[in-house]
């Protein structure tokens, strides 16, 4: 991960310095936005990085986005 944002990127509630690179680890929590009070998340949205093993035939199921209301066959 490399931060180039205007508002900031936090990994596990620690601000990543602008332009700094960090290799994410399984379970890391990403949040975005200006820093709030200590121990709080700056955003109501967050992303949790998780490593998963995917069979080649299932790769499209996790990489091809669906339109709103569309369901995946199978």
TrEMBL record:
Q: Which GO terms describe its biological process?
A: regulation of gene expression
User: Got a GO cellular component term for this one?
Assistant: nucleus
Instruction: Write the record's keywords in alphabetical order, separated by commas.
Output: Nucleus
User: Where can this protein be found?
Assistant: Nucleus
Question: Which region is the signal sequence?
Answer: none
**One Pfam family here:** FHA
Q: Which InterPro entries match?
A: FHA_dom, SMAD_FHA_dom_sf, TCF19
Where does the source fall among the domains of life? Eukaryota
Q: Where is the FHA domain?
A: 1-16
This chain's function reads: Potential transcription factor that may play a role in the regulation of genes involved in cell cycle G1/S transition. May bind to regulatory elements of genes, including the promoter of the transcription factor FOXO1.
Give the protein's recorded name.
Answer: Transcription factor 19
């Amino acid at each position: 991960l490399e931060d180039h944002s205007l508002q900031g990127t936090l990994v596990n509630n620690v601000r990543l310095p602008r332009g700094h690179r960090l290799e994410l680890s399984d379970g890391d929590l990403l949040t975005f936005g200006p820093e709030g009070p200590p121990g709080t998340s700056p955003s109501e949205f967050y992303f949790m990085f998780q490593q998963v093993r995917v069979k080649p035939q299932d790769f499209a199921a996790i990489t091809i986005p669906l339109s709103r209301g569309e369901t995946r066959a199978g």
